[in-house]
Amino acid sequence: MATGLQVAKWITETFDPYASRTVEEAATEALVDIGNLSPADAAVEAERLAAEVSQHLSAMQGRPFEFSARDPRRLIGVKRRLAEDSAAVRDMKDLWGLWRPELEVIAQLDPDEFERLCAGAMRLSGATRAVVTGGPDDGGIDLYGRIPIRPPDQAVREKDLLRTALLDRELLFLGQCKRYDPAFEVGPGEINQFRGAVERCLNKYEGAAMPPALRVPEHFYRRNETCLALFFTTAKVSDKARDTAKSVDIITLSGQDIGEFLSYRRVGVRTDRQGELRVERDALIGWLETHSETA
After folding, report:
1. Backbone CA torsion sign across 235, 240, 245, 246
2. Residue 196 shares a structural domain with residue 157
3. If the chain, 295 residues long, is cut into consecutive pieces of 10 residues, what is the mean pLDDT of each piece?
4. CA 226 to CA 252: how far, in whole Å?
5. Which domain holds residue 10?
6. 91 within domain boundaries
């Protein structure tokens, strides 16, 4: 018999973002498919599991649906247009649906291109520096840079007139970029390996007989400086890997996370002759060529 968590995962992975379904209706479909139940038996079991499934659904990341404000047992696809949607929200819903084709294009990049893409994504997120180390002998750190705790007000010249960001310190970040098949699932082992790479880097490879040739420059950071550790991948991240990452303060960014972010920012997105939005490889490569920074 399928569990409430298994049903919630099935719903999240298969839900049509244009649809509107109750939790019970979606759970019934899941139990017919993965529980091998008849429709009648599935409906009874779905009613029993509804509260548990709803609880798991509310904790799911990257959901293709929202809970209805009027009826919390109803799931509304995120691309389903509502009368109260603003123009900006309607635009976002159109772009949201592009994350899968965006990820398909990203997954076709070579590892070096993917590292540069992650650096460009960090600059889109406000990083003032985002540098790819490049090459195989990087000690497990593919990307480094600095990002403000709070960006300054762009309408005023920062510090020429006044300080516009109360917390104006820039945080160090260190990243590892793994370009895998999007169907692959990263496990906790790779998270722990990255954790070791971060610790060695922050310790400036003290005692290492042969420090990496392509490493974060010593002048760029202080020994054991506070930093953001970022694990980028085109793959999925398993629940165990996410739990491990949280326990050691590593931020995981899955293929879906990256695809959603870049499609919303229109990276690689063009409008075709029919007025439809499309993700095109040459447009993404063109963007990449103008947003790259290497050591």
Report:
1. positive
2. yes
3. 90 89 94 90 92 91 83 86 75 79 94 95 93 90 92 63 70 97 96 96 92 93 96 95 96 94 91 83 90 67
4. 17
5. 4-80
6. no
